[in-house]
Amino acid sequence: MSNAIQNRYDFVLLFDVQDGNPNGDPDAGNLPRVDAETGRGLVTDVCLKRKVRNYVGLKHGEQPPYEIYVKEKAVLNKQHERAYIAIGAEDALKDDKKRKGGEKVGEAKNWMCGNFYDVRTFGAVMSTGVNCGQVRGPVQMTFARSVDPVVTLEHSITRMAVATEAEAEKQDGDNRTMGRKFTVPYGLYAAHGFISAPLAAQTGFSEDDLSLLWESLNNMFEHDRSAARGMMATRKLVVFKHESNMGNAPAHTLFDRVSPKLKDGIDAPRGFSDYDVTVDSADLPRGVSILEV
Question: Are residues 22 and 148 both part of a single domain?
């Protein structure tokens, strides 16, 4: 596809949480995710991509070419059907094969990439019934891991109301509901990302899409406030740009240049000011430059 990015990028995203739950685990009572061996907090890549999707959807009002494919209450096969209608191949939807689409799958896949920001960015498996193929996205992210171990706190909370009259009768009109809330007092998290130019050429991920990705990563927490995630913020986004589309250095050697460390004398961090973050820009590999966006 035309207008795709021509350079490979790798990036480090630093964000923090204060008195909140950055990513609860529904299989563990919504406790903050923690590495059981090291005590370091975790935030899944799926969680971070969700926030990017939400930001893009809010900014562009779910209008092409910035619609969001994976979103709340979406019926994915309905989106696939839209692709066949848009390319004038409604008859392919009547195909009796297990996965409908026939010879038009490639065209339908290209339409999905052009219409949905998250498809051309993160990729998607779109062969679920109405077949629009599979797309391997150029942008991939890791789990975020806290720089230091975090502590999970449990708080009792009270709601001064009940949901039903039956509950009120049981309490003789006291009408209180007790609950639990889990927080991390403070945690600074680091996630790593990779952007492939060859895969971008397959999906049409463009320079405009790239700029929107940087904007989303910097601002995604500003529109994600909730009772559980009040104080979360992106603190630093360090981008390594390669001159070549295949890359000029291994990603891990570049990531090692970003070093967030606790300041001397701080045992229990409670804010970003408790850390020093250094970015080693000396003697970069040839063809690699650092952007702080």
Answer: yes
**Distance, C-alpha 62 to centroid of its chain:** 17
pLDDT at 158: 83
Residue 170 lies in a domain: no
pLDDT along the chain (293 residues), means of 10: 87 97 92 96 98 97 95 90 91 65 85 97 92 95 98 87 81 77 96 98 97 98 88 97 97 97 96 97 96 76
Q: By the 8 A CB rule, do 48 and 278 touch?
A: no
Tokens for 188, please give them.
């600074």
Same domain, 185 and 280: yes
Establish how many alpha carbons lie within 13 A of residue 280's alpha carbon, considering only the half-sphere containing its beta carbon.
12
Single-letter residue type at 107:
E
Percent of the chain with pLDDT over 90: 77
Q: Strands 177-195 and 153-159: what pairing?
A: antiparallel
Per-residue pLDDT at 187 = 97
Helix (H, G, I), strand (E, B) or coil at 18: strand
Beta pairing partners, 84: none
Range of the domain at 216: 1-44+143-152+181-293
Q: Is the peptide bond before 149 cis (omega within 30 degrees of 0)?
A: no
Interacting residues of 33 by C-beta distance below 8 A, sequence separation 6+: 23, 24, 25, 41, 42, 43, 44
- Show Cβ contacts of residue 252 under 8 Å, excluding neighbours closer than 6 positions: none
Q: Report the pLDDT value the prediction gives residue 55, as an integer from 0 to 100.
A: 97
* Any domain includes 164: no
